[in-house]
Design a protein that fits this description.
Blueprint (H helix, E strand, L loop, with lengths): L41 H4 L17 E2 H16 L6 E10 L6 E8 L4 H16 L5 H7 L1 E5 L8 E5 H9 L4 E7 L3 E6 L6 E6 L1 H6 L18 E8 L5 E3 L4 E3 H14 L9 E13 L2 E12 L2 E2 L6 E2 L2 E2 L16 E4 L7 E3 L5 E9 L1 E2 L2 H11 L6 E10 L3 E4 L2 E7 L1 E9 L4 E8 L5 E6 L5
Parallel strand pairs: 2-21
Antiparallel strand pairs: 1-20, 3-19, 3-23, 4-5, 4-6, 6-7, 7-8, 8-18, 9-12, 10-11, 12-13, 13-14, 13-17, 15-16, 17-18, 21-24, 22-23, 24-25, 25-26
Length: about 450
């Protein structure tokens, strides 16, 4: 496992052209967040940062999102033709803003599904995914649940046949999950997360990768454990085309298929969130055929949330203990190698209902966001900017240790390769007040 270097440095942007009142981080209210501890020597990572003092700075001018959309192409041309001491832009620079003219400061509350509703959803998804190989009579033997042996001990849960506990669960007995685990099927829905699919596996990956093996259950491993990654972290609107088992699809068409499968088959997060695709990998599954591996992310009214882009200890997540906050919302991943069907879908349990705390129709322009980015870092840096996106931040807990209520807000997110240290920098700029933070990782592939 490659080491992940994560840094979020609190503090306002020190600007010469525009600014805002000093913030300790991206958040409006930082009273419950401690200052981050760097895990990389800041003299190396910032390379002569311009952070030297805390002057009072004028407010950064904001631009209507509708106007920004009309001017975006011109602003992109302007920054590409501007000589920055520490920034350059790749030839395939992608700049995205949402179609909506209104964004929000958001508060989310996590929902919890009762047993009856969860069971009905579980049964429907199982029939949809595996009804062609298992009958109604099979279900009583296959359906499992995890219940608590001791309700006062959260770690005392154990697996058992669902049929033994069904009546008690209908009457309110506490439980953890519903699941099926065979050599052809795995399905798990957690009680928490409003019934979103936690994990789903068909047997196609293991059968294609290891056709001579006879596993007792589906091998719960990612397709990248068996097959070679051909392209990594592609933009979802890429027109590159690849042949899967039964069709030829562009990356964009595959991403649209993934959204449709997630929504129509009931894998979505529920609540106020809808699924979207953040990025795509192309997997070589042999004999001239390919599969698409997706990182999904939630969206709210068509605007995506941030997804971290590194592999942390224990697997892909948006969580790092090295940050001054944690994005607890895990980003699902999925894999297709034939049309209309996921061979794997993992970690979708994150359902929240949203409250719109404030409407935002004006944000920092792309030009000004780029200037903030440049002013943050010293001339010892050489950031190759390949992507910028106006989106929602990841969710963060309002109260430490309590994941039931979270916040999110609009940010400009920049993806940059610093050629002086060969590290990947992900920089977040609060799209309203200009505060900035970032993380750094050496886990990346182009």
């Amino acid at each position: 496992m490659k080491k992940v270097l994560s840094v979020f440095l609190s503090g306002a942007v020190l600007l010469t052209f525009a600014g805002c009142s000093r913030k300790d981080s991206l958040y409006e209210d930082n009273s419950s967040h401690s200052t981050a501890q760097s895990v990389v020597d800041t003299s190396q990572s910032i390379a002569g940062s311009n952070e030297t003092s805390e002057p009072e700075l004028p407010e950064i001018p904001l631009q209507k999102i509708s106007e920004l959309r009309r001017e975006l192409e011109d602003q992109v041309k302007t920054v590409k033709n501007t000589d920055y001491a520490n920034l350059h832009f790749t030839d395939d620079l992608t700049v995205k803003i949402p179609d909506s003219d209104t964004l929000y400061d958001l508060t989310f509350k996590k929902a919890e599904m009762d047993f009856k509703t969860l069971y009905e959803k579980f049964d429907k998804i199982f029939d949809n995914e595996f009804g062609d190989i298992y009958t109604e009579d099979d279900k009583e033997k296959l359906y499992q649940t995890f219940v608590y042996e001791d309700l006062n001990d959260p770690s005392s849960y154990y697996g058992d046949d669902l049929a033994k506990h069904f009546d008690d669960l209908m009457n309110g007995e506490d439980f953890v999950e519903l699941s099926v685990n065979t050599d052809k099927a795995y399905l798990c829905l957690l009680r928490f997360g409003e019934g979103a699919v936690h994990e789903l596996f068909h047997d196609g990956i293991i059968n294609r990768a290891k056709p001579d093996e006879m596993p007792d259950h589906v091998a719960f491993r990612s397709e990248s454990d068996y097959f070679e990654i051909v392209k990594n972290y592609l933009n979802v609107d890429s027109g590159d085309r690849y042949e899967i088992l039964d069709a030829e699809l562009s990356v964009k068409e595959a991403a649209e298929m993934a959204r449709k499968i997630t929504t129509e088959n009931g894998y979505s997060w529920g609540g106020s969130l809808e699924p979207d695709v953040y990025q795509v990998k192309v997997i070589d599954i042999g004999e001239g055929k390919y599969g698409f591996s997706f990182t999904l992310t939630p969206s709210y009214k068509g605007v995506r949330f941030d997804s971290f882009e590194f592999q942390g200890d224990g697997g892909f997540s948006t969580r790092s203990e090295k940050l001054d906050h944690n994005y607890d919302l895990y980003m699902p991943t999925a894999f297709i190698m034939e049309s209309g069907k996921f061979e794997r879908f993992s970690v979708g349990d994150a359902a929240f209902s949203a409250t719109e705390d404030a409407e935002i129709d004006s944000v920092i322009s792309f030009e000004d966001a780029v200037q903030i980015l440049s002013d943050k870092f010293g001339t010892g840096m050489n950031l190759q900017v390949s992507r910028a996106e106006l989106m929602y931040s990841g969710m963060y807990p309002v109260n430490e240790g309590d994941n039931s209520v979270k916040k999110a807000f609009p940010v400009w997110k920049f993806k940059c390769h610093n050629t002086t240290d060969n590290l990947l920098y992900f920089v977040y700029i609060n799209a309203v007040n200009g505060s900035i933070e970032y993380y750094v990782t050496d886990w990346w592939e182009i």
